[in-house]
Amino acid sequence: MSTSSQFLFLSLIAIWFISLTAFAATTIHQDEKKALEDIANSLGKKDWNFDTDPCSNKPNWVTKLENNVTCNCSVAGDNFCHVVAM
Q1: Residue 48 is part of which domain span?
Q2: In a domain, 63, yes or no
Q3: Of 5-9, 23-27, 48-52, 71-75, the least confident
Q4: What span is annotated as the signal peptide, if there is one (predicted)?
Q5: What is the pLDDT of residues 54-66, one digit of tens each?
Q6: What is the Cα–Cα distance from 86 to 72, expressed in whole angstroms?
Q7: Alpha carbons 2 and 18: distance in angstroms, whole number
Q8: Kindly report the CA angle at 54 between 51 and 56, in degrees rounded to 5?
Q9: Cα 65–Cα 58–Cα 63 angle in degrees, nearest 5
Q10: Would you say residue 19 lies in a domain?
């Protein structure tokens, strides 16, 4: 394997690894999801779709003020997103 091929291969491995660690926290923890489901039931919310992750920024979680769920996915040392505002 030539030096340029080795460099390209190692660069691709490094980019892949960085993308895994940088974007690992993209889902809400199941305990927080369950708590959010309980809150939705208490409030009588029928339009929250829990098949879609609340921290995914999908339209049913961020479009209307009454449906907005804001998450923090950059807590140091944590691999989950956390609901910080509703």
Answers
A1: 25-85
A2: yes
A3: 23-27
A4: 1-24
A5: 888 777 776 677 7
A6: 12
A7: 24
A8: 95
A9: 20
A10: no
